[in-house]
Write a structure and sequence with these properties.
Layout: H1 2-13, E1 18-27, E2 37-41, E3 46-48, H2 53-69, E4 73-78, H3 81-84, E5 94-102, H4 106-121, E6 125-130, H5 133-136, E7 142-146, E8 152-156, H6 164-167, E9 180-182, E10 185-190
Antiparallel strand pairs: 1-2, 1-5, 2-3, 4-5, 6-7, 6-10, 7-8, 9-10
Helix pairs in contact: 1-4
Length: 196
């Protein structure tokens, strides 16, 4: 995650178009779990992985198209016999991946700089991502960063303070939560570093 965010910030500095692909929800057996990230650049290069294989290739294909259209989309995959039979990719699970072109504006830089600082400092952060407007009743895509105390540190595409639908479902980082999704909102914790 640290390298992905660092590369994303570098691309924003030189105004390189990119799509930020985040695995926001999984069910059952999948090659990666929620929180996995991948950057796709308009030249077709990438950094990070969503598990490889057919899913990653399809996300990359869609990301390149969405970069041209400058719009976001949630890509849904059912990993069953209809999807990956030829390649033997029958995990049986489901994946939802938010593919989001990232512009080089101040809001984006502030958001990802805050994320990078929290990761580097080892303090931990929870990223809440609205990915389903029908289920959440909120604008998509919208992202918020929260510290361990539940204080909103930064937001992306937000219209004001974080809605109650998000804040009431934050889990304390001290309990070391795994990524979870509720009502069209993904909660992706980056746990604080602990000393042994």
């Amino acid at each position: 995650m640290r390298d992905i965010v660092r590369r994303l910030l570098s691309a924003l500095e030189i105004q390189t178009p990119l799509a930020y692909c985040r695995l926001v929800e999984t069910r059952g057996s999948t090659p990666q779990k929620a929180g996995a990230t991948m950057l796709v650049f308009e030249d077709g290069s990438q950094q990070g992985t969503l598990g490889g294989g057919c899913v990653e290739a399809e996300v990359k294909r869609r990301a390149l198209g969405l970069l041209q259209e400058n719009r976001s989309e949630v890509c849904k995959f059912q990993l069953d016999s209809d999807y990956g039979w030829d390649d033997g990719l029958i995990c049986g699970g489901r994946m939802q991946i938010l593919v989001e072109p990232i512009a080089g504006g101040d809001e984006s830089r502030r958001y990802f700089q805050t994320l990078a600082e929290r990761i580097a400092s080892g303090q931990g952060v929870t990223e809440a991502i609205v990915f389903d407007s029908d289920a959440s009743g909120l604008k998509t895509p919208t992202s918020y960063l929260f510290d361990a105390a539940g204080v909103c540190l930064a937001s992306l595409h937000a219209d004001g303070s974080p809605p109650v639908a998000i804040t009431q479902h934050l889990r304390p980082l001290v309990s070391r939560p795994r990524p979870y999704a509720l009502g069209g909102i993904a909660f992706l914790p980056v746990l604080p570093r602990c000393r042994l």
